[in-house]
From TrEMBL:
Protein's name in the database: dTDP-4-dehydrorhamnose reductase
Keyword Membrane: no
Family from the record: Belongs to the dTDP-4-dehydrorhamnose reductase family.
Catalytic activity: dTDP-beta-L-rhamnose + NADP(+) = dTDP-4-dehydro-beta-L-rhamnose + NADPH + H(+)
Organism in which the protein naturally occurs: Kolteria novifilia
GO molecular function, one term: dTDP-4-dehydrorhamnose reductase activity
Gene expressing this chain: rmlD_2
Amino acid sequence: MKPRDPHQQPATKRVLLLGANGQLAADLRRTLGHYELVTMAREDLDLTDLAAIGPAIERQSPDVVVNTAAYNLVDKAEEDPLAAFAVNTHAAGAIARASTAAGALLVHFSTDYVFDGQGAAVDAAFSEEDLPSPQSQYGISKLAGEYQVRAYAAECLVIRTCGLYGVKGSRGKGGNFVETMLRLAAKGGPVRVVADQRCTPTFTADLAEATARLLATRPDVHWKDILHVTNAGRTTWHDFAKEIFEASGLEVPLEPISTEEFGAPARRPVHSVLSNEKLARLAGIAPPRDWRDALRDYLSQRPNR
């Protein structure tokens, strides 16, 4: 490990970005572009090859490792949990060990799906101190990954977020929720969307900005910590879809359905709004803007498809 005075905040110079082809990574390339930025996509590093992770990170000699890589096919993970655990848990642990060996801070992204949302009031939001209780193989694998990161990384920050969508889209999901809704709208509807799950849709550009500010300021937080970072406010997937259509000037028949009617293989939290209070209180960073404003910004940036 590189020798460093533990009482002195290190200057971030070289950043290694993992999962570099994802929609969040696309925005992080922009917000972290003033650093010496090295990127690795799946083609550069197979995270299921645990033996390859340590040498690959060591060769880059990073000051910070930012891990956006994840297996996020929530329903498919129910059929093939080993695939989810390979990337979300075991690879996360190997990345944590390698980051420690390199003397690097690890920034690792997790999910609202570590909570079940049961018994949460409509106006409540989960804090970092609330007890996780994931309901799906995906959520369990991500929570196990959090534990691996915090156990094996000498310095780490786990950032939980919710409902990500970005201009680049997510290759594995064939887009994102916004693009899925617009694609269904183009078919004429009606569009049926779950109305009994509450969350906070989060624009990856805003999450990337907050992440960059965290690295730039190195706030007075314990660097084996968890922070929630989402856009502000809350909604249901149904009302999110309604806002997408209204902001796009589309009149689309929209039908609310229940989680039970939707019948997805994986159980989702009925309420997974995350509190940004700790981000402001301890990190001194203003929470991202309201999700409605972020959505309109996204719609103004998306290329013609």
